[in-house]
Amino acid sequence: MINFDHERKFLNKWEMHKWLQSNDISPGYLPDTIFYADFSNIEEMLNRYGRVYIKSVAGFGGKEVIYLSRREDRNDYILKKEQHPIQVADSIDSMVLPLSESEKYIVQQGIIFKKYKNRPICIRSHLIKDPKRGWVYIGDLVRAGGEGAVVSNVTISGGEVLPTSYIFENYDNYLKYKLYMVSQKICQSLNVIYEFKEVGIDFGIDEKGDIWIIEVNTNDAIGGPCHLLFSKLPDWTIYNKLRKMTAEIAGVPDIIMNWLFTDENQ
Ligand SMILES: Nc1ncnc2c1ncn2[C@@H]1O[C@H](COP(=O)(O)OP(=O)(O)O)[C@@H](O)[C@H]1O
Ligand SMILES: [Mg+2]
C-alpha cells in the first residue's frame, strides 16, 4: 500500500521507494532501503553493507542526510552530516545520532559512486509533462558537492554544477539513453499515483557504470525540482528549453513567448 500525502500532494522517500520497487525501472537499480523503526535497523544494514545513509523521509537539499560507515582498516565507525562535526567511535552505541523524535527516517544501502576530484557527484534529470505529448525529457546535469562534502547537493555543500558529458565520457554513447529510459519509466509509473507536472531525478553512477536511483523529486504543494540549477551550466540550451516549456504550459501568449525566447534574448 502506498500512502500518498493528499494535503502536500507528495510521496515521501519511503513511499516513493516502495512505489519504485513495485515498478519496472530497469536498467536502473534501487539501493536496498528499510524504514527506520529502531536502532537495530541501522546495525542490520551496517552489517549487510558496511555503509549506510540515514535520511529523513521528508528531507530535501541534503539537510537531513547522515552517512555512517564501518571502517574495516581502522576497526571503527565514522558518522558524517553536512554542517555537523564528524564523529568517530569504536562502536555505534557511543555515537550521538543526529535524529529528531518528530521525524521519520529510512536506512539505505550506501553505494560507492563515481566521484569527481574526490567529491560526491550525482546526475539530476528533469522532466516536464506536456498536456498533449506526455512526459518530455528536458535534460540533465551533474551536481558536485564541495570539498569534503557528504552529499552532492550544491547549496548546502558549497558545490557546483557541471555538464554531464564533461564528467562522463560515455554520455553520448549510451548513458544519456539509459537516463532517458529510466526517467521515462519512472514518470510513466507516477501517472498512476497523481497528475504530477514536473519530476527531477537524482542518479548515482557506480564504477561499473550502472545507474542507481537515489531520489525522485516531484512538484508538490510547496514547491518542485529546481530550475535554476540549469542556469548555472555554461550552455543555456537546457535551461531555455525548461523555461520555454514551463511558459508554454502556463499558457503565455505567443507575442510574449516570441519576445522572451528570440535569439537575441538567449
Ligand atoms: N544510498 C546512497 N548511496 C550513496 N550516496 C547517497 C545515497 N543516498 C544519498 N546519497 C548522497 O546524498 C545526496 C542527498 O540524498 P537525497 O536522497 O537526494 O536527499 P535530499 O532529498 O536531501 O536531496 C545524494 O545526492 C547523494 O550525493
Ligand atoms: Mg536529492
How would you concisely characterize the structure shown here?
This is YheC/YheD family protein. This protein is an alpha+beta fold.
Describe this protein's structure.
This protein folds into two domains: 186 residues, ATP-grasp fold, B domain (D-amino Acid Aminotransferase, Chain A, domain 1); 79 residues, no CATH class. It has eight helices and 13 strands. Strands 1, 8, 9, 10, 11, 12 and 13 form a seven-stranded mixed sheet that branches. The longest helix is centred in the last third of the chain and has 20 residues. The protein is globular and about 65 Å long. Bound molecules: adenosine-5'-diphosphate and magnesium ion (MG). Adenosine-5'-diphosphate binds next to strand 3, strand 7, strand 9, strand 12 and strand 13.
Fold topology:
Layout: H1 13-21, E1 28-29, E2 33-35, H2 39-49, E3 51-56, E4 65-71, E5 76-81, E6 87-89, E7 105-109, E8 115-116, E9 119-130, E10 134-144, H3 154-157, E11 160-162, H4 164-167, H5 171-190, E12 198-205, E13 211-218, H6 228-231, H7 237-249, H8 254-261
Parallel strand pairs: 1-13
Antiparallel strand pairs: 2-7, 3-4, 3-7, 4-5, 5-6, 8-9, 9-10, 9-12, 10-11, 12-13
Organism: Polycladomyces subterraneus
Protein name: YheC/YheD family protein
Pfam families: ATPgrasp_YheCD (PF14398)
